[in-house]
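Protocol step 4 of 5: obtain the predicted structure for the target chain.
Materials: sequence only (see below). No template structures provided, no constraints applied. The aim of this step is simply to have a reference model before the mutagenesis design in step 5. Sequence pasted as it appears in the construct record:
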Amino acid sequence: MGTFKAIRIDKAEKGTTATLAQFDEAELMEGDVTVRVEWSTLNYKDGLALTGKAPVVRRFPMIAGIDFAGTVEQSSHPNWKAGDKVVCNGWGMGETHLGAYAEKARVKGDWLVRLPDGMSARDAMAIGTAGYTAMLSVLALEKHGLTPKSGPVVVTGAAGGVGSVAIAVLSKLGYHVIASTGRVSETGYLKGLGAAEVTDRNELAGPAKPLAKERWAGGVDSVGSTTLANLLSMTKYGGAIAACGLAAGMDLPSSVAPFILRGVCLLGIDSVMCPIEQRRVAWSRLATDLDRAKLSEITQEIALADVVAQGARILAGQVRGRIVVKIV
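Step 4 output (structure tokens):
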């Protein structure tokens, strides 16, 4: 047993602290697979954990990071052997289970998904939980019956990680994508991803009417609160919105009108405890339905030592697209 580098979160007199430190391998939690972590990523939830802005972390000390890609070192699980390339998202990592910003992770083999053929570990984390959540949202809209012929789709928080991947996937599938953003200066970036239109998020601000003019057949929302309420009021008859985030808050100041007068559906997307079969489908679809060139364009790389500083930036809306973290 030795030590390894990790981003460690500890309780402090006021709030929490996050630092790059040495972690004792003997302190790793129970699990039947040990993974050499090669890449991770920075998600909005990671920013909350690193800064202590929300009570994401439930035990201390904690290793931050909610997702990783790497190589199996040891396994007593029947599905995995040393040398296997794997991806892991959610399952409480970085919250209740020691997480991904570390050179080693020990997890349950039932949590792991095999890295898709032709996808590198870096690509998998360029997608990360944000991109995987975007794909779960697209799958939910498809299950609802949405197709490109249904009409335009809207993506909120468009310049963020979920939004960027959602735009790239939906546009490749043939949808007319309307990107809603607070950074209209990113119009060129968003149209490069495949957005047909870019709108200012202020159009979705303010109290929502019970019903407003029908503008889209569906959408992916990572913002929540008033934005989601306005989205619902503007969704066409029989349409659906996939809700997967809360950047603007957990409240939903809406009414039942869109649901009972237009038959609109609100589709809840949970990435953390999502069943393993659905995860496999999502990663398989990401391997085929996400343009790797576009993925490269939206991705920047940082070192493990840079993670803590970047956590505050993602909460401030200063991060565009995806950040991958090189662990080793």
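Step 4 remarks: The radius of gyration is 20 Å. The mean pLDDT is 96.
Proceed to step 5.
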